[in-house]
Design a protein that fits this description.
Its cofactor is FMN. Keywords: Flavoprotein, FMN, NAD, NADP, Oxidoreductase. Belongs to the nitroreductase family. This is Putative NAD(P)H nitroreductase. The chain is built from seven helices and five strands. The chain is an alpha+beta fold and 184 residues long. It has one domain: 3-Layer(aba) Sandwich (NADH Oxidase), CATH 3.40.109. Strands 1, 2, 3, 4 and 5 form a five-stranded antiparallel sheet that branches. It starts with a helix and ends in a 21-residue tail after the last strand.
């Protein structure tokens, strides 16, 4: 089995991450891999924000500020602390380009594929990653605070760092459970 297939089959979301974060050369390599994602018309309809250090605390404040009015203190604190789950967070942003043949939703899929490549590359270089979304990804306040334009959307918050404690392997479905021949 080749190394690419092995990396894909071994991929897992790692929720327990610690310092160090990937160094800049590893991050740039992973982002270069992201740029190889399928991309109809070569629009490159994505961008990433790198958040580290004090930026994680500022992002937590932004998450907390986006809480609904009826949120409890505990819910607000959880939002504020959530970016601190890892030493680095990458914000994956679908940034569609007006194009007559490539609708915005296809461009968002391209961003998602790029982000999956990014995660695989980080793992191949010995780092863990966890892709999260949730209400904060849809929050107009968070989008505005991160500087997104009206047509951009957050595809995910990619927490990354060194795996603290590997989680147990997650059972994966057999191919026969999700593939069928058509017409049957």
């Amino acid at each position: 089995m080749n190394t690419i297939i092995r990396a894909i089959l071994d991929r897992s979301s790692e929720p327990r991450l610690k310092a160090p974060a990937p160094p800049r050369d590893v991050l740039e390599l992973a982002l270069a891999c992201a740029a190889r994602a399928p991309d109809h018309a070569l629009l490159r309809p994505w961008r990433y924000l790198v958040v580290e250090g004090a930026g994680l605390e500022r992002l937590g404040e932004l998450f907390e500020a986006s809480a609904p009015e009826d949120a409890t203190d505990a819910q607000r604190e959880k939002l504020r602390k959530s970016p601190l789950r890892a030493p680095m967070m990458l914000v994956a942003i679908a940034s569609p380009v007006s194009h007559p043949k490539v609708p915005a939703h296809e461009q968002a899929y391209s961003c998602a594929a790029a982000t999956a490549y990014l995660e695989l590359a980080l793992q191949a270089e010995g780092y863990g990653a966890m892709w999260r979304t949730g209400a904060v990804a849809e929050s107009a306040q968070v989008r505005e605070g991160l500087g997104l334009s009206a047509d951009e959307s957050i595809v995910g918050f990619i927490y990354t760092g060194t795996v603290d404690t590997p989680k147990p392997a997650v059972p994966r479905p057999a191919v026969s459970e999700f593939v069928e021949d058509w017409p049957g």
